[in-house]
Write a structure and sequence with these properties.
Oligomer: single chain
Number of strands: 20
Strand order of the largest sheet: 5-1-6-4-3-10
Number of domains: 2
Structural class: alpha+beta
Helix content: 25-40%
Shape: elongated
Length: 329
């Protein structure tokens, strides 16, 4: 009754084309089922915000009849998987909204053996090949490019491609992981052991390989292998040092004005995923405003520099700060 109540509430908005909620794995009946329940690749909802979804798994999905008829129903070529993804995308393309109902959860048992789990992932790869044929614009670099975030009812861990998106000079509206997170559920306590964790790591290694090659074998894009980024802590191992300096400012003169002054002197913005604001070889600088009461701001600057050029870098910062009215603290 509770599930139906919360699903029905989602359809009070006439723009709602489909609704669904989380799917949770019940207590596993054996070791392999416990490992599969914690492995990557389980059916997961993709959320654009707390309530709007980009994808709702078919194991917990209700579709408005009018919307289903408008998009032509499920497509027959999706015989094993991918039918829910295809339907959700076509609903969105027609202007319908997908609503996530967080309290309308269902129990959804996972595969009972690792072999069946890997076969399932191969089936997902085949479905992705069909999705690539039907929706090529929703793929990037050979894989589905979700605009939202993948959730799976538990904590997430970042994979090797994950980076922090700061925006140029740290000005992104929302700063966070650049969407390479793997939904995680811990191993059931009855089956948690070093051997089980080793098998789980093996599943995490095999899952993307099996899925990617199945996608390629059935006509999808060729697998791509990514190298982990190394740019975030690039001062490590280069012999560079860091120095910090503070300036007294005001509500009208702060970090933004200092960055603008440095830009006028030829400094250029660092990349969207770098922890630094500006660079001017061999220097890089990171800045922050520190509020002290209503009328006072301290602008803190961290300068990365070769040890022998510290004085030159500090002088360049001080000259730019003095020119706009900041005073060294």
């Amino acid at each position: 009754v509770d599930w139906l109540f919360w699903i029905a509430r989602s359809f009070e908005d006439p723009r709602t084309g489909a609704s669904g909620g989380p799917n949770l794995a019940p207590s596993p009946g054996g070791l392999q089922e416990a490992i599969v329940a914690s492995a990557a690749g389980a059916p997961s909802h993709v959320l654009c915000d707390d309530l709007r979804a980009e994808h709702l798994p078919g194991c917990n999905l209700v579709v408005r009849r009018e919307a289903l008829q408008e998009v032509g129903g499920f497509r027959p070529q999706f015989v094993a998987a991918g039918d829910d993804v295809d339907l959700c995308w076509r609903l969105l393309d027609q202007g319908w909204e997908l609503v996530f109902a967080p309290t309308a959860f269902v129990w959804h048992r996972r595969r009972t053996s690792i072999l069946r789990y890997l076969r399932q992932q191969g089936g997902y790869g085949r479905a992705e090949a069909l999705l690539f044929e039907a929706h090529p614009g929703r793929f990037r670099h050979g894989v589905i490019h979700w605009k939202g975030s993948v959730y799976s009812g538990g904590p997430v861990s970042a994979d090797a491609r994950s980076v922090i998106y700061f925006g140029s000079m740290g000005q992104a509206g929302y700063q966070g992981l650049a969407s390479h997170t793997i939904p995680r559920r811990p191993l059931h306590r009855r089956f948690d052991s070093p051997a089980a964790r080793s098998l789980l790591r093996l599943c995490d290694l095999l899952q993307p390989i099996v899925r990617a090659f199945s996608r390629w074998r059935h006509g999808g894009p060729a697998p791509r292998f990514h190298k982990a980024p190394t740019g975030l802590s690039s001062q490590a191992g280069t012999g560079a040092s860091c120095s910090e300096i503070a300036f007294l400012g005001s509500p009208e003169i702060g970090r933004q004005q200092l960055l603008l002054a440095l830009r006028e002197e030829g400094w250029s913005p660092c990349g969207d995923t770098e922890t630094w604001d500006l660079k001017s070889t061999p220097f890089r600088v990171l800045t922050a405003d520190e509020q002290h009461g209503r009328d006072h701001i301290v602008v803190r600057a961290r300068l990365q520099h070769p040890p022998a050029l510290r004085g030159r870098g500090i002088t360049r910062l001080e000259e730019a700060a003095t020119r706009i009215g900041l005073r060294k603290q």
